[in-house]
Amino acid sequence: MKFYMLCDIEGVAGLSCWDEARPSGSLYPAMAREMSLEAACVAESLLKCGEHQIVIEDAHGDGRNIDCSLLPPQATLLRGLTHEIFGKTGLFDESFDGVLMVGFHDAASSPHNPTSHTMVSSRIFQLKVNGAIWGEFEMFAYAAAYRGVPTLFVSGDDGVCAAAERQIPSVVTVPTKTGYGYGVLTKTPEAVQAQLAEQAKKIPDAAGKIKPLPLPEHFHVEVTYHHHYDAYGCSHYPGAVLVSPTTLTFDTDDYGEVLRFFYFVF
Ligand SMILES: [Zn+2]
After folding, report:
1. Residue 89 has pLDDT above 70, yes or no
2. What average pLDDT does the segment 221-235 reach?
3. Residue 214, in any domain of the structure
4. Considering the chain, what percentage of its residues have pLDDT values greater than 70?
5. What's the pLDDT score for residue 190?
6. If you measure from the C-alpha of residue 33 to the centroid of ligand 1, how many angstroms do you get, rounded to a whole number?
7. If you measure from the C-alpha of residue 234 to the centroid of ligand 1, how many angstroms do you get, rounded to a whole number?
8. 188, 209, 230 — which closes off a domain?
9. Domain that holds residue 103
10. Residue 139, class by beta-carbon neighbours within 10 Å (0-12 exposed, 13-18 middle, 19+ buried)?
């Protein structure tokens, strides 16, 4: 089988603040290594289960965080930014059997991670779709579903794991930490890596059971910005409506158009 793994850093074991997620931070190298090791654990365990292919996408910041030398040799790594319209899923298409998300995090304005955010933390206060708060998990799980591919595995803070379990029955999850205000209660990297390796064995089985998320017939998207000028600037996107100084709405029946909107307004 063929799997596409999206990796982020804010949900990995130990990370507790923005400074640790940014290359200028003193603890960033340790977190980038943990991001690499968590991806490697899932990939190695899955590759031991059979003749599988894995494409790993580095989906944090500029996409240049994962140390490729720590990954199993059968995996390939997408580094950098493809500027693909369908979210960050640069090489993603309908040929994959499942999407895996590693190191994911709670949505912007949600409380389960001090670094909870949706795409651009300095701009986006909150994203809602059809009245529900959405984070990157929802954006990419629906992007996968748009290509007919199910999301099978999610690791990260317990907020994103709970969101995944609510929306995808029998999704395989590995919670890494719990957010408390501007802090976290985290498992150790060793414990998380062991759980990732153990839970990843369930992925091939999950691929046979889990269906792609059903796409709603209509998408009512609301994006609220921290700054009124960002909302105003993005209100020039065709079809976008400025409904308050800081909030834009966009309506469409086609999730591809939602992804195009996201690309230009985040
Ligand atoms: Zn990130």
Report:
1. no
2. 98
3. no
4. 98
5. 98
6. 14
7. 22
8. 209
9. 2-209
10. buried
